[in-house]
Design brief:
The chain is mainly alpha-helical and 393 residues long. The chain has helices at 13-27, 39-46, 50-77, 80-99, 104-114, 129-139, 141-147, 182-198, 201-211, 217-242, 248-265, 272-293, 296-301, 306-335, 339-370, 373-392; strands at residues 2-5, 154-157, 163-166. The chain is built from 16 helices and three strands.
Length: 393
């Protein structure tokens, strides 16, 4: 009698899960970048500073990342299906609360605290409640997507070749033994600085374009091009990483540095075509960084600690995501120029690349100290085998 776990479905119902995950991302994380398109409307509606309006977005980002470890624990304790369904209900409730148009602090509660579990809190199309109610209704489809998430099962082989299906075993939720590694601590610093720069450009791209006198609908097309370039960047960087032409940490350093430089140069664009070029480069590089900066956790702490490492990664990224947009908004308020936001973003990203370089050096040094012992072991084994062979003769 043997126990075995049913492997992930290759085709068939697996495509249902992929489609469901795609829709979840479309209803949640994908709309995070659209907040900038409605930034000025919200600011003028409530009559507040740029930095004050930025707190709506930063609160959502922070709560999204802080609750990631909690979601991992709940998913391990219950199931991914239950967590997604709960997130969909909270998302719809947050939109309903925001549609009441009570005051800006209530917007923080509705969008940050309630929408964050589904990572959809930054979509605020207009101060009008009708649009928010419609979006809340659409986000109820998250419950349907969650219901399609069927967990893997274990089977028990019996002598008569029949099988009995049993629920999957629960795994340990968190390991903290690897948190003492200096390379992981340096990578956490990279995460904080990079996150501070990540979430600034999508928030201020549309206001910057409007400040240049562009019509309201042209910036919307820039966001569309940015999204397509993001997709191409993710696929291209994943393909490049699989080719193993360089180490993942080296590739990440290159991509983050170029991303920071592009953002530092973006304010020099003063027309639609120039902004389109810079935003395409930004989307391409941003997608590449997103595709590679999570899997490098495996290079640092190994595959066995990836789940716990990813939880810490999301937790500390919330610090940068929470501080970055309001800091950029403060600079915009004091300098009266949206270019300052992009300068801050580029500076944070270029600075974060320095920490990745240090991490790469430590990882390679650790590998170098572990590898020299292997040839000695192989040499002793070979000598032993040769000695045994001589004795037989």
């Amino acid at each position: 009698m043997k126990w075995r776990r049913t492997g992930p479905p290759d085709g068939g119902y697996g495509w249902i899960v992929v489609t469901s995950a795609f829709l979840v991302m479309g209803l949640t994380a994908a709309v995070l970048k659209n907040f900038g398109f409605f930034f000025l409307d919200i600011q003028s509606h409530f009559g507040v500073l740029t930095s004050t309006t930025s707190w709506v977005n930063s609160t959502t980002i922070a709560m999204l990342h802080i609750r990631a470890p909690v979601a991992s624990v709940l998913a391990s304790r219950f199931s991914h299906r239950a967590v997604i369904v709960l997130g969909g209900l909270l998302a719809a409730l947050g939109m309903v609360l925001a549609s009441l148009d009570l005051d800006l602090p209530w917007l923080y509660v509705g969008m940050g605290l309630l929408q964050a579990p589904s990572s959809s809190g930054s979509l605020i199309p207009t101060p009008g409640g009708g649009a928010l109610l419609i979006i809340g209704g659409l986000q109820l489809n998250l419950c349907v997507c969650g219901a399609l998430m069927r967990p893997l099962e274990e089977t028990k082989d019996i002598s008569d070749a029949s099988t009995v299906v049993v629920p999957p075993k629960k795994k340990p939720v968190f390991h903290c033994t690897f948190t003492t590694k200096p390379e992981l601590l340096l990578y956490i610093l990279f995460v904080v600085f990079a996150a501070a720069g990540f979430f600034i450009p999508p928030l201020f791209l549309v206001p910057f374009a409007n400040s240049l006198g562009m019509d309201k609908y042209w910036p919307a097309s820039i966001l569309s091009v940015l999204a397509m370039a993001d997709l191409v960047g993710r696929l291209s960087c994943g393909w490049l990483a699989n080719m193993r032409l360089m180490r993942n940490l080296q590739l990440l350093t290159m991509m983050v540095t170029m991303l920071g430089v592009v953002l530092l140069l973006l304010p020099v664009s003063h027309n639609y075509l120039a902004m389109l070029v810079f935003c395409s480069l930004y989307g391409l590089l941003f997608g590449g960084v997103v595709a590679i900066h999570v899997i490098t956790i495996v290079d640092i702490i190994g595959l066995e600690g990836f789940d716990s490492g990813l939880g810490l990664f999301m937790l500390f990224r919330s610090i940068g995501g929470f501080v970055g947009p309001p800091a950029a908004g403060w600079l915009v308020d004091h300098m009266d120029d949206y270019s300052a936001a992009f300068y801050l973003s580029g500076l944070c990203l270029v600075s974060s690349a320095a920490f990745v370089i240090l991490v790469d050096c430590l990882v390679e040094r650790r590998k170098a100290t572990e590898e020299p012992s292997d040839p000695e072991v192989h040499q002793s084994i070979n000598q032993q085998e040769e000695g045994e062979g001589g004795n037989v003769k």
